[in-house]
Amino acid sequence: MIFVAAAGLFYLGAAESSVAEEGAQIILQKEELPQGAEEKTKQETKEEVLQQTQELIYVHICGAVNAPGVYQLPAGSRIADAVFYAGDFSPDAAKDYLNLAKPVLDGEKIYVPNKEEAEQIFLEKSLIGLLESEGDLPGEKSESGGLVNLNTAGVDELMTLPGIGRAKADAILSYRREHSFSSCEELMQVPGIKQSVYEKIRDNITVGN
To answer: With contact defined as beta carbons under 8 Å apart, do 155 and 164 qualify?
Structure first.
């Protein structure tokens, strides 16, 4: 009887030891990663961090390009990059009108004129330069004094002003849809029109009577 009890105790002890070893083996199997898995996990984490930290901007490019629209570009991109994203220039584009090396800003609108538009803009700017070189005073130029009326001028007329390109002209029209200009100084309320720009054109603008 004593022999049987001792044998039973020995059997239980061996079984418990076997279970413990098997449990330890299972734990080790769970903790061990396949070869290369840890390195792969680190690489994936690095790529995710890079994607999250990369700064992106949105640019609206329109006019004489094959696929006008709003595009997401890496910060620091140039106008040339925006043109590339928009499917390159259309056949009638005035390719040399814009400075393709100029950096673009978040939220900027880039208008690529066609050849006819660029020629018209050039002629208008040349005419203004000719009048100024002849010493004509702003008040002696026409019925409106040769001044650009901020409350009635269209995009092309606004773009004849020094320092006013397509983007600023569009911003002026957008502001004007909600606010009528009561003074020339109010132009500095338009996004993108700073005092330095205003000082260049103050003698060439009016708000009418």
So the answer is: no
Residue 71 pLDDT > 90, yes or no?
A: yes
Q: 45 is written with which tokens?
A: 């984490």
CA–CA distance, 134 with 155 (Å, rounded to integer): 26
C-alpha 59/C-alpha 74 separation (Å) is 10
Cα angle 31, 37, 39 (rounded to 5 degrees) comes to 115
Q: What are phi and psi of 43, to 5 degrees?
A: -65, -40
- Residues 29-44: pLDDT tens digits? 444 545 555 555 555 5
Element containing residue 101 per DSSP (H, E): none
Global model pTM greater than 0.70: no
**Which among 111, 100, 107 is positioned nearest to 59, based on CA atoms?**
107
Phi-psi bin for 133: left (phi > 0), alpha (psi -120 to 50), beta? Answer: alpha
Residue identified by tokens 């132009």 is 187
Look up residue 173 and give its amino acid: L
Q: pLDDT-derived band of residue 49, with 50, 70 and 90 as boundaries?
A: very low
Mean pLDDT, residues 127-152:
57
What are the tokens at 182? 């009561």
Closest among 68, 169, 181 to 114, alpha carbons compared: 68
Burial of 39 (0-12, 13-18, 19+ CB in 10 A): exposed
